[in-house]
Design a protein that fits this description.
Radius of gyration of chain A: 24 Å
Number of helices of chain A: 0
Number of helices of chain B: 4
Largest sheet of chain A: 2 strands, antiparallel
Structural class of chain A: mainly beta
Order of helices and strands of chain A: EEEE
Largest interface: A-B, 55 and 54 residues
Helix content of chain A: under 10%
Number of strands of chain B: 7
Shape of chain B: globular
Oligomer: heterodimer
Order of helices and strands of chain B: EEEEHHHEEEH
Distance between the termini of chain A: 20 Å
């Protein structure tokens, strides 16, 4: 979420959807357990590409106020759209 | 009275669909499973907005789309190796050091005991092994195993 101190514009991601498989094969993969144990395994490797829920930039508004520092609702904030 | 700085963020619910600040982010998912072991799963998810960190860590020179292409290309090279039977040929007839050795690719999955794994995609030539990518994966949980199992039937094939 928005961090007022750093004024960073963050993004939010939800679960991906519209996933499509762009690679799906059985491959020989060297499986390593620990430092010494290694053996070749046939593993299914699947690569999927999708889109996350829309990345949403959080709009940052910087306002000057001379009144006591009571945050106003967004609809009344100076410069709000 | 000193001016004070106030910050306001636009509530997400107010953002319109056609808001120029909205865009579609891509997500890459990787699942590594085993045919005869339903509990075997190592997965990775890379969202486009997280990619810059990986790009920096791995010292990559491509954008997210190039990264996706390269991941697939590397896995395809590993598959081609198997199809060509290079592994077997080289083990049965080891070459001398002076003989040229074909470049070969392989995938190495390092699994640990803490639910983490590491998929390394390496290229081996006559001189050394060159790591191309190291992808940090997570071991499957009950929820993720179920999700992957269910998704297998609905996700379109390439």
């Amino acid at each position: 979420m928005l961090d007022p101190d750093t004024q960073q514009v963050n993004t939010q991601m939800a679960d991906a959807h519209d996933l499509r498989s762009i690679f799906w094969q059985t491959l020989p993969v060297s499986l390593r357990r620990g430092d010494t144990e290694e053996y070749l395994q046939e593993l299914n490797v699947r690569v999927l590409l999708g889109r996350g829920a829309s990345g949403q930039a959080i709009k940052v508004k910087l306002c000057l106020a001379t009144s006591p520092a009571v945050p106003q609702p967004a609809s009344q904030a100076c410069g709000s759209e | 009275m000193q001016p004070r700085l106030l910050f306001h963020s636009q509530p997400p619910k107010l953002a319109a669909v056609n808001n120029p600040l909205m865009w579609t982010l891509q997500v890459l998912k990787l699942y590594v499973t085993k045919e005869d072991d339903a509990s075997f799963l190592y997965s990775l998810e890379v969202a486009e907005d997280r990619y810059p960190r990986i790009k920096e860590e791995e010292q990559l020179l491509v954008d997210f789309a190039g990264f996706v292409d390269k991941v697939v290309w590397l896995f395809e090279q590993c598959r081609a190796q198997r199809d060509d039977g290079n592994d077997t040929a080289q083990q049965d007839h080891p070459r001398s050091e002076s003989a040229p050795v074909a470049t070969k690719f392989r995938a190495v999955l390092q699994v640990g005991g803490a639910g983490a794994g590491c998929m390394r995609l390496v290229e081996r030539n006559a001189f050394k092994e060159l790591p191309h990518l190291t992808l940090h994966t997570k071991a499957g949980t009950d929820a993720s195993l179920k999700q992957v199992s269910q998704s297998s039937s609905v996700i379109s094939m390439p």
